[in-house]
Design a protein that fits this description.
The chain is about 60% helix and about 5% strand. The chain is mainly alpha-helical. The chain has one domain (about 15-155). The protein has a two-stranded antiparallel sheet with strand order 1-2. The longest helix has about 40 residues, at about 30-70. It is elongated. The structure holds zinc ion (ZN). Zinc ion (ZN) binds near residues 78, 127, 128, 130 and 131.
């Protein structure tokens, strides 16, 4: 089954080997169908195992990145919970505007930075969900944030 979200590459961008494969399947559409069916069956038969492998690999990468970044919320100190189904700590982009040009997931980007000999702490920090929401609001709405702090101070909340 071709991925509906990803259109096939044009012939000119293929490697010689992939081009040969494509030509072969164009000439033998029944073979193509057979292979597609076989791949789909194999996936369905091994679906659970594949999903578990994928999840545990991704979790390993995430855990490692959390460890590198200190393992706790930089604001309130909430510790990382490795058993939570959804991570209790989030990766915050320190340079908000700059990091928008990097379309990768934070943990892939962190791995790449380490590979390139860069310190991921210059780009990311760990925050719990509450602190992350707070910081993001402060960044996005400077004036509103100042007013809120003033109001909270005046009314004795802070
Ligand atoms: Zn926090």
């Amino acid at each position: 089954m071709p991925d509906p979200k990803r259109p096939p590459k044009p012939d000119s961008e293929l490697t010689p080997e992939s081009r040969r494969n494509r030509e072969y399947y164009r000439k033998n559409p029944d073979k193509h169908e057979q292979m597609t069916r076989w791949r789909k069956d194999w996936y369905l038969k091994n679906k659970l195992r594949i999903q578990i492998q994928k999840k545990s690999y991704q979790k390993g990468v995430r855990d490692e990145c959390v460890r590198i970044l200190g393992g706790k919320c930089e604001s309130c100190g909430e510790l990382y919970n490795p058993h939570a189904r959804i991570s209790n700590l989030e990766f915050d982009h320190k340079f908000y505007i700059q990091s928008k040009v990097i379309p990768k997931l934070p943990h892939w980007h962190i791995q790449r930075m380490i590979r390139d000999g860069l310190d991921p702490k210059t780009q990311y920090m760990l925050l719990c969900h509450t602190c992350h929401m707070g910081i993001t609001t402060l960044r996005r709405h400077h004036e509103k944030a100042k007013n809120i702090v003033a109001l909270a101070t005046k009314s004795g909340i802070l």
